[in-house]
Amino acid sequence: MTAETRRGKTAPPEVAPNIARLVPYSPGKPIEEVERELGISDVVKLASNENALGPSPRAVAAMREAASRMSIYPDADSVLLREALGSFLGVPPASILLGNGSDDIIHLLGVTFLQPGDEVIQAHPSFVRYEAAALLNGAKCHLVPLNSAWEHDLDAMAERVNPCTRLVFLCNPNNPTGAIVRKEPLERFLNALPERVIAVMDEAYYEYASPAPDYPQTIAYTQERNVVVLRTFSKAYGLAGLRVGYGVMRPEIAGWLNRTREPFNVNYMAQIAAFAAIDDVEHVARSVAMNEEGKRAICAGLESLGLCCAPTYANFVWVDAGKPARALFDGLLRKGVIVRTGDPFGAPTHLRITIGTADQNERMLRALADVLPTL
Question: Same domain for 69 and 114?
């Protein structure tokens, strides 16, 4: 019997039921794929909440200088980067854990602290990797609907806490809606949580939201409570392609996560770039300023089209187009504009649109004005 015949008669391997229920992550469509499929050029991608201003110039310069040393393994403990972050944030380096993006730390939290029978609580819609962390480890995930303002319903989430609850995820600002959890309601929520529960504050878009006066400064919570704060260099610092994020937490929690993380989980060039980017406050300030200007332009443009976007504190807008989002996505794609549909988040008429440069935003609005009347 040939190998081909044997392969033809062999049944596919069985997987655990929790893995079978897992939905693969669906990233934004790459520019190169759109250009190849449709035979067009000059495509604008406003789908993945990347920084349209580009990477921190200091990070680029540091990578150029370090490129000849990429043959060596990275520091497995990211010591210099953790020390720099500790100084920047005012916490001990032992409280900081580096990850291959903050997604890596979400995964580690599940692997480390969840067992079958445990439970996780998150808002819905929100970032899909929280539920994945639960499913991968045989835990149940409670999806608590957002309120009518597209904000976390903290009272409803508190009602779901029970003796099986181990992790609660709060995405602040929330992805995909851009709304924030405000300081006073958050403190009431955290004060009511049992000590056994770890509250995970995912602040991937922190730099865009932090100027808001009622946005909580949660790093202060991490040294006295079972609170983990996640941040990333992917957004305001413009280093999404390098995949480097970090968590701030009590050293005891970081110690357990260090046991389960992969060796060398943050590559050498990512460590070099992030170390240089920490102090690039000018680039972050320019990114935030461009985002605020773009937010105003996009929201005004959407209003002129008869659409209403939810208030956002991130670098994207969440808009109910009142039409099937998939059809809108296809129409915009043919005009060279990539956005994100709301259907993976359970919102089939919504779009999530990254705020880009002034030219990109204007092009998106023109394309949307052309496509809407055709549906």
Answer: yes
Q: Distance between CA 342 and CA 177 in Å, rounded?
A: 10
Count of CB atoms within 10 A of residue 139's CB? 23
Domain co-membership, 266 together with 303: no
Sheet holding 316-320, edge to edge: 308-309, 316-320, 350-354, 340-341
* Residue range(s) defining the domain that contains residue 100: 57-279
CATH number, position 198? 3.40.640.10
In DSSP notation, 287-340 reads HHHHHHHHHHHHHHHHHHTT-EEPP-SSSEEEEE-SS-HHHHHHHHHHTTEE-E
Whether 72 is in a domain gets the answer yes
Place of tokens 């030219």: 359
pLDDT tens sequence across 225-256: 999 999 999 999 999 999 999 999 999 999 99
Q: What is the pLDDT of residues 153-163, one digit of tens each?
A: 999 999 999 99
- Report d(CA 158, CA 46) in Å as an integer: 35
Q: How far apart are CA 297 and CA 359, in angstroms?
A: 11
